[in-house]
Amino acid sequence: MGVIASRFHPDMRDELLSFIRSVAAVDAEPVLSESKAMRLGGRLDAREQVVVDADARLIGYGQAAWHRGSGGDSGHWALEIVVGPEYRDGRIAETLIDALHREAAGSDVTLWARSPYIAAAARASGWRRQRELLEMRRSLPIDCGDIAFDGFTVSTFRMGVDEAAWLRANNAAFAGHPENGSLTRRDLEQKIAQPWFDSEGFFLAWDREELAGSCWTKIHDDGIGEIYIVGVVPGWAGRGLGKALVCLGLDYLGNVRHVSKVKLFVEADNVRAVALYRKLRFETTRVVEAFSYPE
Q1: pTM for this prediction
Q2: What class, spelled out in words, does domain 3-126 have in CATH?
């Protein structure tokens, strides 16, 4: 079968969106991260590659998106690919990975493998695993008992008021994290503009005038809830605030929004967070691997 790899052209946008929806339906899960889905089809700054077969049918898609670094670092390119289920023998995936790698030449690059066939293609192309992200799930509702916020005041997010405080707190909580440690006002506004945004499910914990931590929840189109972003500023760590915020988010999703399933993503090496989620009866359902290329 002859295939052609080329840069995405805007004329292909409708076909691309249909392709992504059809693959996600077969895989029964999102095939791109939220960051990449927001850039899909030229919506935001990204470099995109497609693979078509001899009949000009779209059979693969790849995207390289730039993530700013924190602490003065320049940043890195993050790559993701999607291949049609009948074309996952490795050749198409390797073609996309190589094309995107060339697009990002000269910069730090991370390749995310959201499915085993992508991880296999990455290894075959000489990439090495550097990180693991656990997807964990459990059913709702959940009884966390009394949720104590001793010394803290809890509110929900106020648009036009809390943006600057949340960005400071989030970037402090995730300092050094390659994706979440340097969010900007533009990043936050893009997330708030998404149709799923619900300020009533976005909880902030204050110590007087200082934001100490937050838990942002989300409900996906398929009805599954998510503990989307939860973080505690280092100066307030170790006081049980993280668990209280997670429990508040779970209570909101299960008992207010009546969601029956919830998921979250956590770095596999975040020992304390993983232990907390396991104590709350979350189970690992998928491992997303991140690869780097030895230059």
Answers
A1: 0.92
A2: alpha beta
